[in-house]
């Protein structure tokens, strides 16, 4: 890959952007050398405070402790709603585009305010107090946004669980953070198919005795079971609620939400984000990275169940008083033209999606794009995984007609907001490169000894100092927090990603260096899939690795060893796939199941994953050192029967 493939920012764009090259460098310098000045100015510009902070920031990366805008008081929903009402009450806040192209809705800031306040009062009437956790398990409908904001208004903490997760996955998350209220809907609708959310919630709640209230939004009017004591129809509860609920005065460091994400080991972790720093960086990046201007129609195609939906459908845009589009459906329904039809219908100016979606639409053919009018588009963005140059070129040429810059934004659930990304009027683009740090972000590359690599090179990507939207903890497990992020390299936050820095000092993400998969932009721990597979009584052992996949970026390749006397069969393969779907959700379906008579292990019994990864990727030239293997013949057998050639 050549670094000389540099695409200058399109000229018209650069002259009108918020931030040009010189401004970027000056602001970045200020953010690092005079953080007190820089952050005080940005915090006043982007946020309305009830009372000011006493100290901008303290942190200690030996332990991971961090505090931003200490003692400051604010409420996120005042910033996302109330303060816009005087000037923008009648402006659209949310455009909802349904799964069915005939269905859409426009919600003004006044309506948003009314709905959020009413729901906040409903939550209060059910006993929800400041600090309590509320689980949100919803389809992509406006009520999902109301639920998040209503929770924040009363100082409670939301935990949104992606609607594609199974009842078991939902149950684990509810129990881990002891949510006592769940907000869901009767069913979801995606690509014309119904998703039984309430039935899933019912199944999960059988094991969650502390949940006393389940608020159910009517979406499809599908038949649902009803528990009179626990279940409440959303529309009935709202009808009786008052339309003003005073916002709770929150401390800058009070928790705002928990969001579960996968790591290399064990069960998913509840990533904890707090109030002021998170909101500030979400709003700043939304404005500067997307070059958002008043009146722009902005569309992020993520689901609110992921961090991208939190920061870039809900908090960033609404804090900036933007028009944010939320889409219930899928990119290929009714056909592969859907994204671009929606762009045309709502005159979308800023469009943000994942490389996996781009690759799958690219495969469907250009006509699906060129049949639509995309002249409203001004900027394109990507997130979630490295974008391959072919997909980048197609996005740039066919979708954006070489008019729109592309921002390749690297960040994580844990970082809360963008960390590495070009600013569109300031930094020339390089296909596949996340380029430069956002204000205040200090990336470093570390070698295996934890020494900083200077100049061009490749290593482990770590961050040297706190940033406002930094993860503050793993819910209920501070030990795991330190262990996961602050122990591999003392004094640094470790991202789990590898990266390369080129001659211009620009960063290229090379992918995870730990046992985390990135399947269609969804994070998954290999350990989670393995635990699901070994639940099957016929399975003795399983090892899961990622493998190359044209559309998903990474596929799931599972090596499965059966109990002695058991035989592989197509039926067993199906059972194993469904056990993954049941335990985690459809995103965890293995693409390949390799029946392995044995797994390569060291003499101390540790599975040698490096070798399994190479065999799955059909990279056989350089298997590395196999001398520590207990039984080298195991490897020959796996190679012989490899599934990707
Ligand atoms: C990967 C999603 C390359 C990376 C916001 C990271 C990326 C993980 C990019 C976080 C990008 C995200 N280029 N890789 N632009 N953005 N990643 O927590 O491996 O779901 O660690 O957050 O996605 O995934 P998460």
From TrEMBL:
Domain Acetyl-coenzyme A synthetase N-terminal intervals: 24-80
Known cofactor(s): Mg(2+)
Family: Belongs to the ATP-dependent AMP-binding enzyme family.
Enzyme class: ligase
InterPro entries xref list: Ac_CoA_lig, ACAS_N, AMP-bd_C, AMP-bd_C_sf, AMP-binding_CS, AMP-dep_synth/lig_dom, ANL_N_sf
UniProt cross-references to CDD domains, sorted A to Z: ACS
UniProt PTM comment: Acetylated. Deacetylation by the SIR2-homolog deacetylase activates the enzyme.
Stretches of the chain forming a coiled coil according to its record: none
Alphabetical UniProt keywords: Acetylation, ATP-binding, Ligase, Magnesium, Metal-binding, Nucleotide-binding
Function summary: Catalyzes the conversion of acetate into acetyl-CoA (AcCoA), an essential intermediate at the junction of anabolic and catabolic pathways. AcsA undergoes a two-step reaction. In the first half reaction, AcsA combines acetate with ATP to form acetyl-adenylate (AcAMP) intermediate. In the second half reaction, it can then transfer the acetyl group from AcAMP to the sulfhydryl group of CoA, forming the product AcCoA.
Official protein name in the record: Acetyl-coenzyme A synthetase
Domain AMP-dependent synthetase/ligase: 82-464
GO cellular component: cytosol
GO terms, molecular function: acetate-CoA ligase activity; AMP binding; ATP binding; metal ion binding
Binding locations of ATP: 384-386, 408-413, 497, 512, 523
Organism in which the protein naturally occurs: Porticoccus litoralis
N6-acetyllysine modification, residue list: 606
Pfam families linked: ACAS_N (PF16177), AMP-binding (PF00501), AMP-binding_C (PF13193)
GO biological process: acetyl-CoA biosynthetic process from acetate
Gene3D superfamilies: 3.30.300.30, N-terminal domain of ligase-like (3.40.50.12780)
UniProt entry tagged with the keyword Ligase: yes
Binding site for CoA: 190-193, 308, 520
Residues reported to bind Mg(2+): 534, 536, 539
Superkingdom of origin organism: Bacteria
Domain AMP-binding enzyme C-terminal: 528-606
